[in-house]
Specification:
mainly alpha; 6 helices; about 0% strand; single chain; Four Helix Bundle (Hemerythrin (Met), subunit A)
Length: about 180
């Protein structure tokens, strides 16, 4: 039972391919449904892991990996259709590259960076912007709200990056130098 959150994270990684398939086929409602199911699965996996103390080091890697793959895949798909500005995607990818490289280095040293509310708020806004961007295909009145929400997500993600570095990475660096 304690592996259920990791199984759900692995399923979310598989849903990235499902999302991509539907996007290539221009089946945007199916994309939206897949994305929402992935999001709900993410909530369930986090709830189960915390409620039952099924938190594992592999889960600390798989969960954010699944989230990042889904969001980044969606953003790149949107970019290919001209739905989002390139500069926003570049900022997101640069931030994620820093997080992935830093996380990989720390992971190799058996240091696990955990998410907190700063990252969760950013993720929430990223998820909302993806859902809004897809929903705009059916509800054009959304206007530029998806872009505005993505901008807020980017700002929150950059704040989270600085926060994680200050709270989790810098103490590790200081400790290893001592």
């Amino acid at each position: 039972m304690r592996h259920i959150p990791n199984i759900l994270s692995a399923l979310r990684i598989l849903m990235v391919g499902v999302f991509l398939y539907f996007f290539i086929k221009a089946q945007y409602l199916s994309c939206l449904i897949t994305y929402i199911i992935a999001f709900l699965t993410d909530l369930l996996d986090g709830f189960l892991a915390r409620r039952n103390n099924w938190i594992s080091n592999i889960g600390k890697v798989l969960d954010p990996l699944a989230d990042k793959l889904m969001v980044l895949t969606a953003l790149v798909c949107f970019l290919t259709r001209g739905w989002l500005p390139l500069y926003m995607i570049i900022i997101v990818f640069a931030k994620e590259l820093i997080m992935i490289v830093g996380g990989a280095i720390l992971f190799r040293k058996k240091v696990f960076v955990y998410s907190d509310w700063f990252g969760k708020f950013a993720s929430g806004f990223f998820n909302a912007s993806v859902a809004l961007t897809l929903a705009k295909r059916f509800v054009p009145q959304i206007g530029i709200l998806d872009i505005v929400v993505l901008g807020i997500a980017i700002i929150l993600a950059l704040i989270a990056l600085v926060h994680y570095a200050r709270i989790q990475v810098l103490p590790y660096i200081r400790k290893t130098r001592a």
